[in-house]
Amino acid sequence: MRRRDTIVTIVTMGRNGSLRMAIGADDLGFGAATTASPTRRRGRGLVRLGIAVLVVGVAAFIGGFVLMGVNAFESVQDGIDPQRDLDLSVGVPGNGTVELDADRYQVVALGDTLVAVSGMSSDAGGYTVSRIPFTEPVVTITGPDGAVVVLEQPGHDRLSSTPGLDAVGIYEFTAPTDGMYAVTVAGEAPAVSSIGIDEADSLWESAKPWITSSAVITGGGVLMTIGVLVLVGGVVRSTLGSSLGDLRRLGRMR
Hints:
Blueprint: E1 7-14, E2 17-24, H1 25-28, H2 38-78, E3 88-91, E4 94-100, E5 104-111, E6 115-118, E7 128-131, E8 138-142, E9 159-162, E10 165-174, E11 179-186, E12 194-199, H3 208-253
Antiparallel strand pairs: 1-2, 3-12, 4-11, 5-10, 5-12, 6-7, 8-11, 9-10
């Protein structure tokens, strides 16, 4: 495509007439400046992309902390009581009945010294909750047909620590049919105050909002990092394109 240059005309008047001087735009360095180089255009695109990603990252980062604050407020307002969410709670020793649907359930030991909490919330890994060895009571569950339900070891640790009450998942089982199930707890277990029955993972559902907010914060931090890197790359590329354009103009002036 043919480039159209602007011609600057300087006129001087003297006694013997006039003198006209025509100077092309390239001689003044204007022609090359009217069209940005491809390198510079790509750099500007990266700058805009970096700013957009950075803004999204900052919004997610702040939103994650806001969500965490809301979860903390709701926890304090509603109170934290794992025992309140159980389908059945039986003392040690003791017995009880509960109506269950055909589903997967857990047996939870409750007491005030069942888990240990270490670390601080300000640490990179946060709090660490670990089980303290304790004697488990003997738990027997009988189904509607009179058959004893098979209790299984949990596939992974389920631990919860709240002020004055710890919860530890000690068994899992499958209720094969709907109906009334009888629960008998026997034996000596000084550290365990009661045994609870509830749907698998139900006690740990309350942790999901915290996991979600932590994931949002982490994602926001990652996006912020990417945005900064893209922004810096765009600035460098744009500056490089501008410098190359200056060098080309200097070459033409010579």
